[in-house]
Amino acid sequence: MPLLRRFSSSFKKHKATPNNKDSANGNLTPVDEADAPKQNGTQAGSSVAQSLEKTKDVHWNSSYNPPSPPAAQEPVAGDASGPATRKDVENIFQQFAQLLHASQRPLPTQSGDGQYLDEAKPSGFLADLKSLGLKDVKTVTHMLEDKASGKAQDDRKLHMEEIMQLIAALPDRSANRVELTSMLLDVLWNSLQHPPMSYLGDTFRYRSADGSNNSYIFPKLGAANTPYARSVSPVMVQPGALPDPGLIFDSLLAREDFKPHPNNVSSIFFNWASLIIHDLFQTDHHD
């Protein structure tokens, strides 16, 4: 036991001396006053004072840098910690308005997948003018003249076909194209005859397959296996020898030069349209 005490005291003295390896490098080892050997109070105090005097000429070689103070953070827009700006308030009201608009919007039933269709913005009047030419200006003039006169249109002037060409030349998103299409459909509908669905019951509701019941006044006129009869009394005396039917056809219906229609529309187009809307589908007048 006395040997261990002497060894520990000598080790502490060696550790506290400034001539060790750390002191040679300029780094001092701190000395704990509680572990230093104390024979009396004066010796401990004097050893501490000597150590402080020797440290005056020692240069510290330390690489420790104190941390810099944190920089002040700027308030973030929309953050509760910072003041709210006018733009933040406008964004909140705009989001609230969008929510109200979406709640009142009808459900998307046209797409089939539950998504809303993109609403295309209609093109302006300048875009319509760029797609038109000098020929379309004449068409608009004819259309205004026919509208102002209030009279029936002459199909031989092909004004309706010119309107079709004008509508086809307009852009797809043109608002004027929709209005012209609706006006054209009204003109087409009003130009066709709209007889009542039935005069004398179901018998005259449809044309028969044999050609009968085509007229409620003369039901058998034009029917199969019946002689041809005129419904208009002649005003001129008929000759005794009737002309050849082929000669009559060539004289009245044949044409020497073929003139194609501007829109490739057949001459029986309107009669065929009347047959479809009145006999096949029974179109309602309100539709």
TrEMBL record:
PROSITE patterns per the UniProt record, alphabetical: PEROXIDASE_3
Keyword field contains Iron: yes
GO biological process entries: fatty acid metabolic process; response to oxidative stress
Annotated keywords: Dioxygenase, Iron, Metal-binding, Oxidoreductase
Region (Disordered): 1-84
Pfam family, one: An_peroxidase
GO molecular function: dioxygenase activity; heme binding; metal ion binding; peroxidase activity
Composition-biased stretches (Polar residues): 17-28, 39-52
Protein name listed in UniProt: Uncharacterized protein
